[in-house]
Amino acid sequence: MDIRALLSGDVAALTEAIIGCESVSGNEKALADAVESALQDLGGLSLHRDGDTIIARTETGAGQRIILAGHLDTVPLPSTPGSRGTVPPSWEQIDGEQVLYGRGATDMKGGVAVQLKLADDVAAHLAAGGSLDRDITWVFYDHEEVEASKSGLGRVMRSVPELLDGDFAVLLEPTHGVVEGGCNGTCRFEVTIPGVAAHSGRAWMGENAIHGTAGLLQVLSDYTPQTITVEGLDYREGLNAVRIRGGVAGNVIPDSTVVEINYRFAPDKTEEQAHAHVREVLAEAGISADQQKVTDSSAAARPGLDHPAAQAFIDAVGGEPMPKYGWTDVARFSAQGVPAVNFGPGDPLLAHSDDEHVTAQALRDCHTALHRWLLGG
Ligand SMILES: N[C@@H](CCC[C@H](NC(=O)CCC(=O)O)C(=O)O)C(=O)O
Known about the structure:
The chain has nine helices and 19 strands. Strand 11 and strand 12 form a beta hairpin. The longest helix is centred in the first third of the chain and has 23 residues. This is Succinyl-diaminopimelate desuccinylase.
């Protein structure tokens, strides 16, 4: 795929092309190659590639550095036939608005397109003899939508941390055009329910491990998630079964079922406190310690919107800040001491949905706001 010619045009057309390059987590290479060659062509940026993560930096010697970061991967394509949030993307005209449907339209290929368009703007500005108040680092990374251990951003933070030094970071995750502060944390538990295998024609000889999940599923279904206010933003939590596997054949009583549980926790909690809370709920369902294990965990991030850099950003882009309910790499940057916020095109409520879409106007508005913040005018 070649996106070089699109960088100087409409950010909506650029987003369409980027969505057209399917990049479900683990399959980012073609898109990473396209991003790398587009950035190479711009000139004036120092480039670094690590796997399918690409980092581009201006090196003008300005005293401060801004980071614009976004992931290249998406969740899997929708499995429901007829879903519009898929690949290839498609345009629809709705109430006079141009609407782009496709996997990643909100999370977050629109944000990636805005990042690339800003790189083109900045390269042109420098080539014309302009200067920057703050140097800029662009990060395009792989494996965000999967377990934390696979993250391309995490890998580079461990191997070449100096490439990600900065005074302030913006994650171009979908935020509907306002700043979303911090993020909820996320952790996953696997709970194993044992049973005894038997012929399903003689079920009394066994113990059904799928039926054995009923008590746990009832506790999760009855669970009332909390909303917790942190620094003035209301974070909605959630505790849900997200996957279940069990059974080996249509004529065998299952001897084991594994229920995967995902807890989304507010930034008032550490990961340890979050894990302890899940354990309490599991104990209520009669699950013992040896039936459960933590399989993935990522810390939450407090909003930190009173930081001068965050405050200046909010003043520049406008709008009333909201909380980020999903997990984003604001948490990774905050943990490294880099204040960070989410700000990007598209409605986060549509992220991961079967009809993921974004309006052309939202893409253009986000680009305009960030262009003004970075280059003025
Ligand atoms: N390692 C984590 C990564 C999960 C990342 C994902 N993030 C988003 O969807 C951000 C978009 C938004 O909420 O606006 C998530 O929260 O699932 C994991 O695997 O859980």
